[in-house]
Design goal:
This protein has about 300 residues and is mainly alpha-helical. It has a domain of about 200 residues. Strands 1-2 form a two-stranded antiparallel sheet. α2 packs antiparallel against α3. About 45% of the residues are buried. It is found in: Cell membrane.
């Protein structure tokens, strides 16, 4: 079970990396996440059941997520709709898109090929195929992100999030950077949805409900545990945070709590993680000598 949780954590970490691109770098939450995640899974599973190779099916899921992010970006930058509302509008619309793609609320991959089947010849122990799959995709995604953010385009993207007015004064097209960020991040999020759908063996129209909480938990847990980090270290910290989150969920299940209410446990874990910095600050103030407090 622990190995399974680690493998799941790695696949969910890809979601966290996608959310990080907007939530932490551009400094706004993108609600499109809850639509692009199940869209990636729906397109991927539908493609596989139609006879398309799992790798190409996964790439189609990524492209679908990128299209969703592009629409949100255009509504936000060109339509001047607030980013949260633009994300909600696209998320709501994607519900119908997913139903149109699958022609049913859920679609099974029973007796269909999956991307993790490539590891069958290695005769790995149970769940180790998911760990291998997670490692491979995380190495690819993190390497691509590090390469991108070290280019002039990537630096312009970071500058847009740091100080939009300054970036605009330097000639950076900030609207284009926002569209780019939303497109790329939702592509990464859809990749996570496609991989998790293959791991679970099915796609479901309601699979995106609450996933933004899981992604944010990965980011927040990593930041709380490790504090100040370099950019590369922060990406790795998200992976560690996602694995720890999945282990915490496993602990909740092992303690005998009803799995029907996992969403509320997810919300509580995230809330506690968000409160930790304030709790540390309060404890430090409480235990500091009075003279230091006066200073």
């Amino acid at each position: 079970m622990i190995v399974s949780a680690i493998g799941q954590g790695m696949l969910w970490a890809i979601l966290g990396l996608g959310i990080f691109m907007t939530y932490r770098i551009l400094n706004f939450p993108d609600m499109t996440t809850e639509g692009s995640f199940p869209l990636g899974g729906a397109v991927c599973v539908t493609a596989i059941t139609s006879g398309i190779h799992p790798i190409f099916a996964t790439l189609l899921g990524v492209l679908a997520g990128m299209c969703a992010g592009l629409v949100t970006g255009l509504l936000f930058t060109k339509g001047k709709i607030p980013v949260i509302l633009a994300g909600i509008l696209v998320m709501s619309g994607l519900n119908s898109v997913i139903l149109y793609v699958m022609q049913t609320p859920n679609l099974s991959l029973l007796n269909q090929p999956k991307i993790q089947d490539f590891f069958l010849s290695l005769n790995l122990p149970n769940y180790y195929d998911i760990v291998f799959l997670g490692v491979i995709f995380l190495v690819i995604i993190i390497s691509l992100l590090l390469f991108f953010f070290n280019t002039n385009l990537g630096q312009a993207y970071i500058a847009t999030g740091d100080n939009e007015h300054m970036a605009r004064s330097l000639g950076i097209k900030t609207d284009s950077m926002k569209i780019l960020g939303l497109t790329l991040s939702n592509g990464v999020i859809a990749l996570s949805g496609a991989l998790i759908a293959q791991n679970d063996g099915y796609a479901d129209v309601n699979k995106g409900t609450g996933v933004i909480v899981i992604g944010l938990a990965s980011i927040i847990i990593g930041e709380v545990l490790f504090g100040e980090l370099t950019f590369a270290e922060r990406l790795v910290a998200i992976v560690v945070g996602s694995i720890i989150y999945q282990l915490l969920i496993l602990l909740v299940i092992k303690l005998g709590f009803d799995t029907t209410y996992l969403k509320i446990f997810s919300a509580v874990i995230l809330a506690l993680c968000l409160m930790i910095p304030q709790l540390k600050k309060a404890l430090n103030l409480h235990f500091l000598p009075e003279k230091e407090v006066e200073k």
